[in-house]
Amino acid sequence: RKKSSMNDRPILLCDMDGILADCNRNLIRRYNFWTQQGIPENEHLDKWVKDHSMDDPRVDNKIYRRSFCDPGFFLSCPIIPGAQEAVQRLSFEFNIYVVSTHYYSNQTCTWEKETWLERYLPSLAGFGIFTKHKFLVQGDYLVDDNMNNLSSWKQAHPNGVTCSLRYNWTHSAFADIIADNWQDLADKILASKKER
Fold this sequence. Notes:
The chain is of the alpha/beta class. It is built from six helices and six strands.
């Protein structure tokens, strides 16, 4: 299938942590190692800690945050199921950029994220924008799981389309498009593009 010209394609901005990279699974593995809790890997750690913190004095709702500071954390995250195929489909219709937060407490964060993209999504390697101020980045669509990112970006780009995945417990119910998985999300984004 032939791609449309780069100049006439809309811009799709895509978060990395929790959208492309399965940071949650990596967080659970590390949390289980530190606490011996035995949380199933299909749980969402933020939700599990919140649901259990009143019942179990061993639960520390901040212990897992240190993972983000650990060298190797981002590089060792698996890819979210279906993301590779969906990004490939969307790349025929969109210019795609990864917009991800740089954790200043982790000196290897940006290098790890770029290396992760080279490993799992080589077509996006070199197309990473690392900032916590995502609202400053111009685009037509934003896929993110953080309500603050989605709302501030929407406020700055009122004609833009916000998207989120239910796969991630922290998905925003306020996104314009909410999907169950990456295939569903790609279908909905492509349908939305036809309507615009």
